Amino acid sequence: MSSQRLSRIGVSIFGSVVSIALSWPYWRDFEYWAESREMWLLYFAAGFVLAVYVFYVFLGTLSTLFEHDAIDRVRRAREAGSQEDAP
Questions:
Q1: What whole-number distance in Å separates Cα of residue 49 and Cα of residue 41?
Q2: By residue range, what is the domain housing residue 77?
Q3: What is the C-alpha to C-alpha distance for residues 20 and 15, in angstroms, rounded to an integer?
Q4: How many domains does the chain have?
Q5: pTM across the whole model
């Protein structure tokens, strides 16, 4: 795997761990959606996998956005350079 892909996966997992830590069920005494410990574990496992996927896709899209911005900057610089050369 490329280093960019590994860093995206690492940031995705870190963001997901932080998200789980911020919403840990023990702080709520299991008072919300899932009443049993097993359902909470299932809920957080599914949420973790979904969060990693969402972070990963977001970071991939963000890098594509920056690549397109860099291409656009080069194009504009070339156009500005060719306009300066014209009499």
A1: 12
A2: 3-85
A3: 9
A4: 1
A5: 0.54
Confidence of residue 28 (pLDDT cuts 50, 70, 90): low
**38-84 pLDDT per residue, tens:** 877 887 788 888 888 888 888 888 888 888 888 989 999 888 877 76
Residue 74 one-letter amino acid: V
| CA triple 56-3-19, angle to 5 deg | 30
Checking phi first, is residue 58 left (phi over 0); if not, alpha (psi -120 to 50) or beta?
alpha
* CA separation for the pair 52, 68 (Å, rounded): 24
Give the sign of the dihedral formed by CA 41, CA 44, CA 48, CA 50.
Answer: positive
